[in-house]
Amino acid sequence: MLLVSIFTQKYGSLSKEEAEENAKRVEDVVFATANEHYEKEPDGVLASDKVSAPRDTVFDISKGARSFIEVKEAEEILKPLKEPGNCYTKISFSNRSFGPEGARVAEPILASIKDQLKEVDLSDFIAGRPEAEAFEVMNIFSPLPWKSCLEELYLMNDGISEEAAEAVCELIPSTEKLRVLQFHNNMTGAKGALAIFRLVVGCEGGIALSKALETCTHLKKHDLRDNMFGKEAGVALSKALSKYAGLTEVYLSYLNLEDEGAMSIASALKESAPSPEVLDMAGNDITAEAAPIVAACIAEKQHLTKLNLAENELKDEGTIQISKVLEESHLQLKEVDMSNNSLGRSGARVLAKVPVQKPEFKYLNINGNFISDEGIDEVNELFEKFPDRLGSVDENDPEGGGDEEESGEGEDDEHELERKLQNLEANKDE
């Protein structure tokens, strides 16, 4: 029934279709007006009067060519970090070298956002500076009161000496949530190493290494390459490594561990860290004496994809023991580097059998050894169906092994080593 009012009498009535069309037009106008109002005043404050928070969480100035950062450039490039309400949780100063003046510009800016940072990359940030300037920059950055929310810290290739390590250890008073610490390519000796480990836990004085790293149970990647710690530090480090259950990558190359340090670390890793994918112990003067313990450790790591034992002194005896362990299982293995280990023909022959049954295998490096021409031919024959898996042997020296190579020509040495390996397995079962 149509209702009649004074308005319909005066202005007339609309049909149902006309009314729906007009209602739709009104609705569109209302929504457009509301949207415009919200854009200007989202929460009752005019947008022009409200500071908008950027959505970027990564502040990275590392791109491009390496350059020195002085005062004016530091003031310009660090402006985004000064904006109120910024959301940066990661900063990277890598590849940009700070002088003392530039560091003084950065110091108060970094202090203002210290509570929100989770990842700090200061690798290569004093590259090319004179030692006095570099040390001054370290001292400028050291008092910054970083919070315990820091999860990743990168200090690679900074030329950090023992004295500089003492300054660096004051960077972070507490790092309970630290998951990644990369410190390779520095010049830190044993004293500096202890200072860095004090950094990890934020304790003052010399804390025993095993105790120090007990608090960093969340570490998944351990990278201490190119720091001449020595065998004593290796033994101490092994006590810390025994606390890590979740390690997936272990980089301990060029630490001057020698057999004593390497055996301690291998023993610790054998009982902990069940699933590492990378094990790198290159350049540590490891000999065949340590091979049984290293091999026993590797035998437990079935998730290994990369094994690097280059630039040691494993020779045929040590290499065969490790090769036999790898040959039996380790189906995920992709890369093995046994270059520069004084290998002869017998060691190379046994090692070359490892990739045959590995569907994921990509690369074997046996360059820089003392393999005879006959041995090289045998290796090439084993790789005949997949030559791309074998690295170059251009630096192999068939004359370098002397009389030792002659003793490896036959099968007797290989069988003797197999007997030693069986004894090793028997002792392990006991």
From TrEMBL:
GO cellular component: a single term: cytoplasm
GO molecular function: GTPase activator activity
Region (Disordered): 387-430
Superkingdom classification of source: Eukaryota
The WPP domain, residue ranges: 5-49
Annotated Acidic residues bias: 394-415
Pfam families xrefs: LRR_6 (PF13516), WPP (PF13943)
Main localization category: cytoplasm
Basic and acidic residues bias spans: 416-430
Compartment annotation: Cytoplasm; Nucleus
Matches recorded under InterPro entries: Leu-rich_rpt, LRR_dom_sf, RanGAP1/2, WPP_dom, WPP_sf
Keywords noted in UniProt: Cytoplasm, Nucleus
PANTHER family membership: RAN GTPASE-ACTIVATING PROTEIN 1, RAN GTPASE-ACTIVATING PROTEIN 2
Name of the protein this chain belongs to: WPP domain-containing protein
Originating organism: Populus deltoides (Eastern poplar)
